[in-house]
Every structure is written in C-alpha cells, then in structure tokens.
Here is the input.
Amino acid sequence: MPTPSLTFRGEPMRMIYLDHAAAMPINPGVLEFAKRYLQSDFGNPSSLYSAGLEAKRIIEDARKKIAELINAENETCIVFTSGATESNNLAIKGTALRNIGKGKKVVASAIEHISVLNPMKELQKSGFELTIIPVDSTGIVDIEELDDSLTKDTTVTSIMYANNEIGTIEPIKEISEIVHEKGLYLHVDATAAAGRLPVDVQNDGIDLLTLSSNDMYGPQGAGALYIKPGVRLQSILPGGGQERGLRSGTENVFAIAGMGEAARIAKDEMAQESKRLRGIRDGLISEILKVEESYLTGHPTQRLPHHASFRFSRIEGESILLNMDMKYNVQVSTGSACTSRMLEPSHVLIAIGLKHEEAHGSMVLTLGRSNEVEEIPIITKAIKETVQRLRELTPL
Ligand code: PMP
Here is the structure.
C-alpha cells in the first residue's frame, strides 16, 4: 500500500508510519467495496422498501464474515457497535447488570484497556466489588491469583487476548478453562489481536469478544461484540431496538459493510501477512536492542507479530516521539493513544513492575501493511541518533 509522499526542503520524503495500534489506513479494497453505502445505497436498514432491504442485506453479509473470522457458532452471535470502547462497555456493564442476581463482583487484569477498566470502576462506584489481577514482568496474567479470586458471585471476568502497549499474548485457553470450571463468563478484548492471530471463540472458550473495525483496516466507527449463545446481557443503549435490542440506534451501514469486508480479507491474508510482519518486527527488535540501556517491554516470544515495544533509560518517550517525527518523519508512539494526553505513566507499564521514571521512557512500534523490511535500517538509524541526541541533552 503506498504511504503518503511528503517533501522535506524540496526533496521527496517518505513517511514511515509505525503506530497501527492507534489508527490504520482503510484497506483500498474495503473502501471500494463499501463506498456505495455512503454514496448511492444509503437506505436505513430498518426501512421496509428496497433501499432499506439492501442496507439490511449488507449488514447481514458483514455479520456472517465476522462470525467466520472468529469461528462463531453462527452470525446471530455478532452485535454491531460503534467501536471497541462501546463493545467493552456493553460486554461489562451489560453482563454485570443483567446477571446481578448471581452476584456483584467483576474481575479484570491490571493491563486491560481503560475502556474495560473504567466501566468496571463505574460499577464499583455503584456497589460492585472489583478485583484486579496482577501480571508478571512480561505482562502474563497471574493464573493462580485469578483462580483464587473467582467466586460464584463473579458476573464477568475480562482478560484481553493481547495487550496493545506491550504486545503480550495472554494464555486465553488456560484462562477460559479456569473461568468455566467455576461456571462463570469470560470477556476477551481482542482489539489488538484480531486479524493478526487466529482468534477462535469456540476453541479458545470465549463467552464475549470485542472487535474493532479500524484495527483490521476497516473504516473507523464500527466495532462488534461476539456473544456466545445462551449468555444474557442487558442493553446499555436503549432506543429503537436495533441489533436484537442490545444496541439501539441506526446502524453505521458504510462502516459495518467495510468491517465485514476487512474481516474477510484478514481471514484470507492473516497467516501470510503476520509472518511477513514478524520478520520485520524481529529485525527491528534485534537492532534496537543494540542501543545502550534499551530494553524490550512485554513478552520476548508470546507477543503480537506486528508489535515491538521498548524503554530507554534517562530519556522521555514524548521527546523520542517528537524527535522521530520532526527530524526523520517516522511516526511512533509512547503507549496507548487513548491515554496519551494524560501525564501519568501508563498503567500497563506500572503493572509490569516499572518505576515511574522507567515507564516514561517508552516507545511502541506497531507495524502494518505499508511497512517493508527495507525500512529496518532507516528506522533503527533514526532511533539510535535520536536516543543519542536526547541523552546528550538530558540532565538525568
Ligand atoms: N481495546 C484495546 C486493546 C485497544 O487497543 C483500544 C484502542 N485501539 C480499544 C480497546 C478502544 O478502541 P476505540 O478507541 O477504537 O473504541
């Protein structure tokens, strides 16, 4: 996929984009497939005339493609939302409130995305008990602690498939066995993993699964929640009763049609593309770790194929990001874009045991379709020079 061509002092300059966890360019094939639902086929899926029926048809087509990507029992297990944040909110609040008769306890790992932790904290304010499960220094959830924490009054347990800031992949199958032994529900946020790892809700034993369109090269503004047959939820957005009454509001037909097509493409291309990205990732990791006092964050092997995350001592991640952008036209991240305006260090890096000053020196690279193996020396040179310059300037 071509990257935006820029010029610097009159010379053509290629931007290297390394923050696919924050936003992804829409796949041109997806745009081609879905654009007519913005332009000509703009009917409301609830309308009974043919324009409405076409909109309804394409939504059902997308539902089927998403069910196939994650091996859902059938397409009725998929509910469309506006994105991963809404899916996480629906999964957590919807399950906790509908099953309040069972108990008032919710459980999450310490490295969940804030769109999981914050709805749980809201439930806590209204009288639920919230238990946070620690992780080890690589980000793997403490299985024994999880086992000890689950009781029959736990309504929902949320553990992510893979972490967006440190790339660590959780042992979801093992976790689901523990949760199911106690007859409880497991919610899994697969925003960072879907389209890169072969997520299989039946084989992995997942009751609720969050997906995001844009994280699979689909349009922004759509997400989905998989709900296993038999799992009961309460709507958190009442209105016209769309999406089986679980998510009211006129559907975002363009984004949903695009998400379906993005899921179909991801299913076809995932194995090959993940292998390609893994090669670039490993090349970057081995080169970047040659920088003095640089460390990999997250798991060394159980990590997302497109994900490389580091910390550098004695410098600030924000300075790395700005320097890499302005001087080299390389876009990197310091962690989650969703919390980038907060001054506090990332809760994920603190949970893996870093001190505040260590957590401030983080840099996250998430690769995608536009990245090429030829970029490795350009990126590593930019990082080496940046780190050296910033260290020369630092009073630390
Ligand atoms: N979960 C994870 C793991 C994420 O990385 C993100 C952000 N991409 C979200 C949830 C929230 O996604 P959104 O802001 O698109 O709703």
In short: The chain is about 40% helix and 15% strand. The chain has a mean pLDDT of 95.
